[in-house]
Each structure stands twice: as C-alpha cells, then as structure tokens.
Amino acid sequence: MPALVGGALLLPAAAFVFAPAAAAQDDVVYASDFEDGTPGDWVPRGPVTLAVEDGALLTTGRSAEWHGPSVDLTDVVEPGGVYGISVSVRFADGSAGDALTATVQRETADGTSYDSVVYQAPAGADWTSLSGEYSIASAATNLTFYIESPTVDASYWIDDFTVTELEPPGIEPDIPNLKDVLADDFRIGAAIDDRDLVESSGQLLSKHFNQVTAENHMKPDAIQPTEGEFTFGAADELVEYAEANGMEVYGHTFLWHTGQVPEWWFQYPEGHPNAGAPLGNSDEDRQIMIERLEAHIGALAEHYGDRIQAWDVVNEVISDNNAEVYRHSRWYEIFDGPEYVHEAFRIAREAFDAAGAPDVKLFINDYGTENPGKRDNLYNLVEDMLAAGVPVDGVGHQTHINLNTSIDQIEESLLKFAGLGVLQAVTELDVAIGAPGEGEEFPQLEARLIEQGHYFRDLFAMYREHGDLLESVTVWGLHDGRSWLRSETRPLESPLVFSDTLQSKWAYWGIVDPSALPEIPDEEEPEYARVQVPLADTAPEIDGAREAAWDEASTVATEVNVEGSADGAKADVSLLWDEAGLYALFEVTDPSLDEAGANPWEQDSVEVFLNPGNTRGGGYEEADGQYRVSFTNAVSVGGNGPDAGVLTSAAAATDTGYVVEVAVAMAPEQAAVGTEHGLELQVNDGTDGARTAVHTWYDPTGLSWNTNANWGIAEFVEDVEEPGGGGSLPTTGAALTAAIAGAAALAVAGAVTVFAVRRRKAAANWGD
C-alpha cells in the first residue's frame, strides 16, 4: 500500500462557505456572549491581552498575525457532524486593520493543520458577523478556534460566538449493510486505524464491514520501531474491536521497502564492528536479515496466533519497470536477488505453525497487478515459488485504480492467477475520480461521483461473478476523508464508497442497488492539447546536447502544476519523429539538482508517456509506455505494455538545470505521416530526497502513470503548419478537469446542467 500521508483530512468543503448557519436555537452546542464580565473559556493565543468590557471581548497587544483570542472546541465538534460557526467582530476604535480571519488549529497524531472557517473577511469599526461551516472527518486530539488579523498590531472585539450543529454526526441506519449484500460472494473489508473505531465512524464500520486491515498499525515501524522492542498496543486495539464485532482481521505487512521500515533493519546491529553502517550483501549480512525476519515474524505469530486470519508476508516486490522485474530495494540489494521473498514465506509458515496457527494464510501483495506486464512478472514469481515448495497461499491485488482503469484487465488478472490455484484478495481498493489540485475549479464533481457509481457497479458485478476466486475485497479507507489520496493539495479527491460525512455515495449504490444510479451526464469530449510533430530531416544524435537537427522541432512547455510548488522545475520540450519513432529533448530549468530520493520519481527527472495510435483505452495497453530519465541519465520505466518501444537516452547538466534527450522506438505503422498518438510530458522536482513539485504539458490529474485517458495528442506530420507545432493548451483551460467544451459559457449563463467526460466504454465495459 502507499505510505502514510500526514495530517487528518477534511470535508471537500474545506474552502468553507460564508453563508450564515440557518438552524434552530436548540441546535446550538456551544455559545459565548461574555455577559458575565469574564472571558470564560477564551484564552490568549500568543502574548496578547484579553479584557471584557460592556459584554464583549477585546484583544490588544498583538505582535504577529496569528495572535488573538482562542477557545477549545475539542469536545464540541464530533467527526462526521457539520457545524455552523458564527461570531460578531469589529475593530477597536482607532485601530488599523480591515480584515479578520476565523481559523481552527487541528491536532492529530499525524501533525498540525490549520483550517480556515472564514478567510480575511472585510471588517471595520462597526459590528459584522463572520460565519461559515466546519466539519472534521476523523477524530482530532485538539481543536482550537481563534480569530486573527493580517494587520499585525490590530486590536479588535468579538461577541456572540455560537457553534450550531447543522447535521448531527451519524450514519444512515436504514440502508442495506454492505456485508449482507455481499455475504454470498466474499468478505468486505476496510483499512482502518484507531480513529475509525469511535463514535459514528465505529458505527459505520461495524454496520457495513466484516473484515478490517490495519492501515499502518501493523507495519514494521509500528510493531518494532527499535530492534528488539515490540509495541503491539495500537494493533491490539484494532484486533480486539474486530473480535468484539464479529470481524476478521487481515494483517499488513511483515516485509516492505518504504520509509515505514525503520533504518535499523538495513544496518549492522549493536555490538557488530560496523554497528550502524549499512549492510552489504555478504552471506553474513543476509543471515542478519534472516534472523531479524525470524524475530519480527515470530513475535507477531506468537502474539496473535490465529486471531489474524491472513497476512501480507511480502509487499510490493515487483518493479514498476517491467523489464527490471524485481524492485531493486534494500532487500533485493542485500540478498542480491529475490531470494528474500522465499525466506520470508518459509519463516512465516514455520512461525505460525510453531504458534499453533497453521491455518493462517500467507499472501504476497502488490499494486498494478491489472497491468499486463507487472501481472505477468508477479505471476512468474508466484509460479516459481510454488514449484520450489515455498508456502505461499495467496495473491493480494491492491487495486489502486481510477475511472479509466480497464475492468477487463482486472478480470484477466484474477483469471490468470486462478490457474495457479492460489487464494486471491482485493486488498486496497480505491477508485480515484481525477479531482484537480488545490484552488482548481471542479464543476464536474457531482458528475464524476455519478460516473464513479457506474464504475463500482461494473467492477463489483465482475467481482461477484468471480466470487469463488476471491477471499475478500477491502477498500483502502473507511470513507473519503480517511483516504490516502485526499490531501490539502487535492481536497476533492473522493475514491471510496462513503463520503466524509459518513453518508452513502453513488459508489455505494452501484454495489448495492444499481437501479438507483442516475444517468451519467451527457458526454462532452475535452479539447485535448495537441501538437504537430515534424518529420526530422536528420535524426538527432542521442548524446544530451542540442544540435542543429532540433532547430526544426516543435516545442511545448510543461506549465501545468500537478503537485507541489508552482515554482518547481519545468521544461521546454522539443519534439521530432522519423521512421524509427519519437524523439524528445527536455531543457529543464532547475537551479538545484537532487537525486537523494529513495524512489526514482522523487529525484529530479523527466518522463515521457506514449500511447501509440491515441487509443485511450484506459490503463496501459500493449504498446503504451512510461519512460523516466533522471538528470544523471538513470532510466526507470513504468508499467509498460509488452510491446512498448525501447528507450534510448542521454542527459547532461547545464548552467540553468539539465538536458535530457530521448528516443522511443515505435512500430513502422505508427511512425508515419498522419498518425496520432497520446502523449504526456512531465518534470519531477526533487528536493532533499522528496518530490516537491510536478509539472506536465497537459494532464493535471496526477494519474498519467496509471491511465492514458488524460494525455495530450501528438500528430506526426511532414511539416508543421504553425510555429512551434501549435503545441499550446486548449483555450478552454490549462487543466483537463476544467477543459470541458462550453463549461465556462454554461457557468456564466447560470446553467445548472453539469457536463463531464464519459470515459470510453472499453475502459469499464459500460453498457449503453
């Protein structure tokens, strides 16, 4: 599964509305009017002075924007509820200042967030009201409401503060239980942590699900943060809850490769002459790793026995580079190959047998198994393990997908592994709707949610048809607010079956009662970005240097900010073609080059995505390719189809960044005048080992690695018709999500119809 994303998550209405709360007086759950002459629960935030005069609270002595009066709402606001917050404000006579902001500081185990209820609302010397709506999706350890001003030395009054419950937290008690609807097919699970066990979240969990997976509490860093010191408390809480509510538990995970595996795993132990230094790949080093696996898995087996019915023994060992086959993790490096996978399963089987739990099932788990190339590499590994007598019981398909992912390909993977006779489970399901980044308009939200409902209808119809092949289907999160795909930079992503307010979505009804689904709004094809790519008179030499051959090329720019800083690295990209295939020259502006990231996409690099024939079938098709090249010419390719063209590349540093030059081989029938090809170009900006920005030519969804549906179009021509090959973005907007033909005009006209892109039927096997 993906690594833990920091910070608790809010409603899509995180850009909170400014309409006053309209609710009955008896719904007020907290109020302050200062009529008793004291500040009551209000306390200074920063070194300010609070004083009550004439039934109002005055704040003076501010020296920073965030200074002001504050009140604790931790016990007032419950997860899943929607609250109206209102307060009367005015600036003190003679004080500077013209705007005030109402904010909630939200503390969770993941960190601190600041949620604006009202942002810099106009205010003056006369009383005015600040009001907005607020909700949290999961429990917080502390919620502090405060009033601040961008005018540092401003003084101001507040009065008549109320918190009104608009929608009580709670679930829909009368809708069908998912676990009952699917009882004859497979168990339905959810990935959770302790936040999901309390109040309304716990009610939703116990009503609809009969299996749970610990999202993070059973990973190596949670169970054994320091060698020899085991911490089971958080995991025990989940197991005890599951047992009390008649649920099965699926364990995740013993062996992984990410930052959620402590560094000590890969270092020499205390007492060794090289203590603390990285392990090498000698027999002695491998034995250290084996003994650590034995201790770790043995402790879990002894502690839980058969209270956990299945485990992901090994997670994500297949490379995204199909040609590479295995992920070149520290495990792979130390064992000089994939033998550690065999060892982990051997150790796990022996440990559970010794603990009197021989029926615990042992799974190998990975994402992208719907991709034919990655599926085949995992299949070959499992086939070899079975032939060698390795005790692998099952295969887990993570299934982090989107609305364009081919259901046919998901089904083909289930059928292929069925031939091995192993158990199978869908372990981490979510279906991204392609929501834009922070601040982007998204008028298609409701249409995408309806579309998602139809996708879940077809996906679960396929799963239920093959229910005999599936042990369980687990969604990766209880509701949208708890999804790893939701973040403050992508606040509208909604990949699960229940909303932030714990209510059923169209995705739920697609599973439970497809007849309840409305029609997907009328199809309207985006005006995809398009560039004419000219035929090269002379093929450029792939040497990392710009030469005369590039002078006749078309040029586009990676100006669409997909992730992180808008000021991050970008590139001008020159494009040519000939009978051998496509050529691209990235001239990247990036003043600080970094390759410290553990993953190649976290390093300064460029990517080419190519869909020969512009088929846009959904996922990666037979000839589709994702090609990544770093500024040092380190090459990594994505989940490419088996017929994807070979990449040739070169890279060189420049005074302003670096240059990457690539050639992608193409079939003769595709490398011809008049052909069109799906194309996306991307620049990854790495800083101190983390990816801090992503810019693309066109696709704003962040899903280019997963689907070809949102890429631009390259037309192979003999000569271009306009300077640069016409490679500008569509006039309807720089973002695909806003590039619906006529959408702007409809919005201006006040039309209520929402148009959305209906994906090609081939992606989801939709009927008419």
From TrEMBL:
Keyword annotations: Carbohydrate metabolism, Cell wall, Glycosidase, Hydrolase, Membrane, Peptidoglycan-anchor, Polysaccharide degradation, Repeat, Secreted, Signal, Transmembrane, Transmembrane helix
Listed EC numbers: 3.2.1.8
Catalytic activity: Endohydrolysis of (1->4)-beta-D-xylosidic linkages in xylans
Enzyme class at the top of the EC tree: hydrolase
Location of the GH10 domain: 172-514
Signal peptide: 1-24
TM annotation in the entry: 734-757
Database matches in Pfam families: CBM9_1, CBM_4_9, Glyco_hydro_10, Gram_pos_anchor
Family as reported in the entry's similarity comment: Belongs to the glycosyl hydrolase 10 (cellulase F) family.
The name this protein goes by in its record: Beta-xylanase
Organism: Glycomyces endophyticus
Taxonomic placement: Bacteria, Bacillati, Actinomycetota, Actinomycetes, Glycomycetales
